[in-house]
Design goal:
Chain lengths: 320, 320
DNA sequence: CTGAAAGCGCTTACAG
DNA sequence: CTGAAAGCGCTTACAG
């Protein structure tokens, strides 16, 4: 920029004005500057500009893993918002390792990102407190953040699917199909709460053995249907059941849709939600907050939808 | 940092020394500085440091789309390298829109990334020339970059699967199974070259109609087997064929493995390659180049492997 | 062992 | 309409 200035025989400030399209420059001066920029192949250093400006126009996304389609979908929604607001995105993945979450988040904060979108790992997120105090906006996605034993309330938003409602819908669907002994495979408290609500609403009592199933021994489980809390478990269940004879099979409902689910055999009913919407919502929450919207931090639940598939292929449940 | 210095009653330089763990500071002075850092909640601004240092320790990854599992896998490989070398990653996706590729790449360059990993779109990449001249290292992944009509040779590396070898293996496999009329669905010249080589090696002549198939009319195609050049086309073919009677089906070989391929019905043979390895290779190439390795730019092909699956389910081919 | 000065590449707040 | 000075938060190259 200094070189451009001297070549165009103007002050630094004038170059800055031309580069930023600020008014108050004679066409002749401007063209002289433009010429010098062209000659020298000048490209403004955005990082330097942002240092002076105070913000970085950068957000950071911390994912579980890029092998997780939900993370990719969240990213897509996020990117829409990011693009339309002129931000750039740092990203990284944790592989569910909480120390990597911390390392990544702090590295991004050291680069002074304006905000962070985090798929929380199981560890504590307390390392974030000084950062949020320093002005970094944070939003957790897909899952609620770990609740600290000390009860520290993180100044952050959360965006996730309506798990409870999803559990309710899934189990109600299975009950309507005639199932009575319904299993639960997973760990989400909210989803399990939905399961329990639907059972209770139908006057059924869940045997504790049904809700503490293990994917590997699913073939011997005393249930005719099972609700899987996430894609990994759904796939695990499908693989186990695929090896069984027709008669040994059970109905599977998975939380979270996935590609090719309609081609999978036996057909798979899923509780679907839109992870892209989660990303978009999180991005918009962040952008609004960065623009100075000081509303209290909150949790946003996106709606879920039951997609019944291939239920006709299932063996009839044992009772009515 | 200025505040820390004055609170610890030392010069700026001394704070810098403590923060960077440089030698030559009395334990007393150091602890005084550390105390001030603690009191003030000081966190060094990495961006400012990098501005002064000249490099940014940042790479940029430009993907097709996060819905493309290959891109996610490349990212994973890349991240391994990036993490172990202390880089951070900017990322964004193009949705195959060349203007978005350019916008993203230039935005990253304006932030002065040290290097760029690009999944090339169909457009020209000439916009990169000034950037590479300015010192940005670039590597294309998964596909070769668009060849410019003017014949400009981009100073960049390329890392992709051995498509030609894959095409050869796929078609040789189908021929060994008794197929003679084999179709090709896609546009990759290298893959088609492999197809042609295998046909020729078996003394077969490909009807032009076989290599210009359309996914939508696949059910009427005059072939008993088809090689699909990418996941999108493979899925398209599977969906079309899934609607057909047993007798109307044909053998499908897909270029690129995907999750659940083993559950898909009809069974799917694929030419598999490791996109994570592509990412890792690209990352290492870049890191080495940034470390000053001035070897000529080159194209690296990663090996492919044929995974036969479910072929027994296919109807027998019409000739021997 | 410690520090004062200059500078990375830009913008802000003024003055003319 | 144009510019000289100061400063964003840090490091480099010296000097003491």
């Amino acid at each position: 920029m200094k070189d451009v200035a001297s070549r165009a025989r103007v002050a630094l400030k004038t170059v800055s004005r031309v580069v930023n399209g600020e008014p108050g420059v004679t066409p002749e001066t401007a063209s002289r500057v433009l010429g010098a920029i062209e000659d020298l192949g000048f490209r403004r250093n955005e990082s330097a500009r942002l240092l002076r400006t105070g913000r970085t126009a950068t957000l950071g996304f911390i994912a579980d893993s890029w092998a997780n389609p939900d993370c990719s979908a969240v990213y897509r929604g996020l990117e829409e918002v990011v693009r339309s607001h002129g931000y750039l995105l740092y990203s990284g993945s944790t592989d569910s390792d909480s120390s990597r979450e911390e390392l990544l988040a702090l590295a991004m904060c050291a680069r002074r990102v304006d905000g962070l979108i985090i798929t929380p790992t199981a560890g504590s997120h307390d390392y974030l407190v000084p950062e949020t105090e320093a002005g970094v906006a944070a939003v957790f996605v897909l899952r609620p953040p770990t609740i600290d034993l000390a009860g520290t309330v993180l100044p952050a938003d959360t965006v996730l699917p309506d798990e409870r409602g999803g559990g309710r819908a899934a189990v109600a669907h299975l009950i309507a199909q005639g199932h009575r002994r319904i299993g639960f495979l997973g760990e989400s408290p909210q989803l399990l709460a939905g399961y329990a609500e639907a059972m209770k609403a139908a006057g059924l009592t869940a045997d504790p053995a049904w809700t503490t199933l293990d994917a590997s021994s699913l073939d011997h489980a005393p249930v005719t249907a099972v609700l899987c809390a996430d894609r990994t478990r759904t796939e695990g269940a499908l693989h186990v059941l695929a090896g069984l004879a027709e008669s040994g099979r059970m109905a599977v409902v998975g939380f979270g849709d996935f590609e090719l689910a309609d081609l999978v055999s036996p057909g798979l009913t899923v509780v679907s939600y839109d992870p892209t919407l989660i990303g978009r919502t999180a991005g918009e929450l962040l952008v609004r907050r960065l623009a100075g919207d000081g509303i209290p931090h909150r949790t946003v639940e996106v709606p879920v939808r039951l997609i019944p598939r291939g239920s006709a292929e299932f063996p009839p449940p044992d009772t009515h």
